[in-house]
Specification:
By secondary structure, the chain is mainly alpha-helical. Helix content is about 35%, strand content about 5%. It is built from one helix and two strands. The chain has a two-stranded antiparallel ribbon.
Length: about 120
């Protein structure tokens, strides 16, 4: 009976040694990663000096332009048009809309979610 307890104790001791070895390996990997990161950081160029920083344009900062765009309408035809039959091969630009009113969703219409049903109303 005494040998059974010794086998159990020996098994627990091996488990403890295994956990300590695993911990030492994890710490060694973390130290190695830190060392490698510091080495890579040393090779990077230094941050730009204040004289090398970007400056705004001479006329001041560029402002945002808000305008509504109108799509180029697809020509009406008796037969189905394929992409190569369209003028400009699909590269026709949009044009500025004369209306300055922003388009809004209709009440009860489809917004960004769902199919336009009553929802939470």
């Amino acid at each position: 009976m005494n040998t059974a307890w010794m086998d159990i104790a020996a098994g627990r001791g091996a488990l403890g040694v295994g956990l300590i070895v695993a911990g030492v390996v994890v710490v060694a990997v973390l130290i190695g990663a830190f060392w490698l990161g510091a080495r890579v950081k040393r090779r990077e160029p230094p941050p730009p000096s204040p004289g090398e920083q970007p400056r705004p344009p001479e006329g001041g900062p560029v402002r945002e332009v808000r305008e509504n765009r109108e799509p180029h309408e697809v020509p009406h035809s008796d037969h189905r048009l394929t992409p190569h039959e369209l003028s400009g091969q699909g590269n026709v630009p949009t044009r500025t809309s004369p209306s300055k009113k922003r388009p809004r969703w209709n009440e009860g219409g489809s917004g960004s979610f769902g199919s336009g049903g009553p929802g939470g109303r």
